[in-house]
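Sequence in, structure out. First:
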Amino acid sequence: MFAPVSEALIADAEVASGNSVLDVATGPGEPALRVSETVGPKGEVIGTDPIPGMIDAARRESTRLSIPNARFEVASADNLPFPDSRFDAEVSRFGVMFFPDPLAGIREMLRVLKPDKKLALAVWHFPDNNPFHYCFARVVDRFAPEPPLPPDAPDAFRFAQPGKLKNVMAEAAVRDVIERLFRFSIDITASVEEFWNLRLEMSEKLRQRLAALPPDALADLKHQALDAFRNYATGNALSFPAEVLIVSGRK
């Protein structure tokens, strides 16, 4: 679904054949697995994530695809198990928003990056510009409202405000920081019912919120959500316009 974002990160981090690349907060293995194709057999990519289950999933997918130049390790962004100046490039797709301490995490990423090399991070732009999120979230909020989060709490839209992540990177001593708005389409081959299941699979927190609802309310919520999804459906496929910020810089 987010392959265009991976391509944007690869371009902005100047990933090239033969590089050694770090993917921080790789989740179940992306964009590390895509990066492995760019760096080729003479390069390598290492994906890290603090959640062991995510690393297990990434390793299974790497094995299934027979990718020899990718490996995965459990590690948090602010405590990377690598020596100084280890990598030629670094990427992180939708990870920095959830770092416990984004400034410390970016400084640690900078530590293991080679001098004059680049890192590139992708974060979601405003929720109102991303129906992939809001068309479901607005329905859920009507049935299971939550109190507003503190301004800098870990959240998908923590760095939606232009300039916010750019300022953190500059404070971390990243040089030549550039922020750009990247628009793309999230294209999914699935029915609206299958997309409902996919969205639940993507978020344990969401599953917990819905599990607390009475059966009648859950059925009504699902009906309204499927109606919202149909605005972006054509046949057995969905397409959502999307916006992210790509923030990159150099050590």
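Second:
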Amino acid sequence: MRVIRAEAMGMCFGVRDALEIARQVEAPQQVTIHGELVHNGEVIRELQERGFRMTPEGRRTALPMTDDVLITAHGVSQRERRRLQEAGKRLIDTTCPLVEAVHEAAQELHRQGYHVLVLGRRNHVEVVGIIEDLERFDVIERLEDVREFAAPRLGIVCQSTTQPEEARRLRDAITAANPGKEVRFIDTICKPTRDRQRAALELIEQVEALVVVGGRRSNNTRQLVRLAEERSLPVFHVENADELEPAWFHGFGTVGLTAGTSTLDETIDAVFDRLSSFEAAELAGAGSGL
């Protein structure tokens, strides 16, 4: 079985920088990560083994017990920063600069009097951080969320890991549902997301099945899975090599491999090695499993 890697995949510079900052912390036992540094189980286990405390993302209203608090790559609102600082917390900031750009775009639209529409996952930590600083907003997760809005001026931004085609569909639907209104769209989808989705689409045309490596709660990883599903290509989403089953690949001569932006290089390499080790004879005797 031939395994083809996507031209662009895996850890982006924002995640790599955030992880490097965390790895340089000399006393991790005295630091609380305010949520999940990234949505990747392998990374979270590494940080837990080093001794970091972690605030569950769904319970960040409670103040961390430690004086030092690490802001994750997904960022937080300015309101949340002030709350932590006013409580005497020292912040270690690993916010991705491309996420910061989404915050700035949304706040600028808000200052100019637009009703801000955020295209993204309503309860995702990145989106929560964006909308906490806004008074006038709606989150548009799917086409069913689109309606005619009362405001005369609508400003649109995207969660940084939004699928570009999905953003286009939602933007067009918003414009159609609000005739005669000013609609301003700021494309805040990050380049690493675009590069990985473009490479995945190119790979999908060359293979009989696709393996996507990354956290199951990672939005950009799920978007890669969705690209294959929308094209009726068999796709297998795993977090690590141990989850792979030879039976899944029975009858496939060529399999593609891609990974989300928070996936460690060593995890991708381990998945590639395991896929490459599946011999044709082993697969032939394994049964279908699909």
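Remark: Confidence is low (pLDDT under 50) at residues 286-290.
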